[in-house]
């Protein structure tokens, strides 16, 4: 019975920490915030790489301003 109270307390602390987050940040969301797109492999012209989308070979690509 004591373990139930301990689990309830841990669950309460975890849920309280999650309630403070505005949104869950994922690599895809951070890429879209930079006005980028996720592409498999390397970025092709006129795009350049600014980060990763979290996949094995996916890149966050942003369109070049000068092209």
Automatic annotation (TrEMBL):
Subcellular location: Cytoplasmic granule; Secreted
Biological process annotations from GO: cell chemotaxis; defense response to bacterium
Main location group: cytoplasm
Domain of life: Eukaryota
Gene3D superfamilies recorded: Antimicrobial Peptide, Beta-defensin 2, Chain A
Residues passing through the membrane, by range: none
Entry keywords, A to Z: Antibiotic, Antimicrobial, Defensin, Disulfide bond, Secreted, Signal
Residue span(s) of domain Beta-defensin-like: 29-61
Keyword Secreted: yes
Signal peptide: 1-20
InterPro entries: Defensin_beta-like (IPR001855)
Any Gene Ontology CC annotation: extracellular space
Molecular-function GO terms, alphabetical: CCR6 chemokine receptor binding; chemoattractant activity
Family label: Belongs to the beta-defensin family.
Protein known as: Beta-defensin-like domain-containing protein
Species assigned in the record: Phasianus colchicus
Lineage of origin: Eukaryota, Metazoa, Chordata, Craniata, Vertebrata
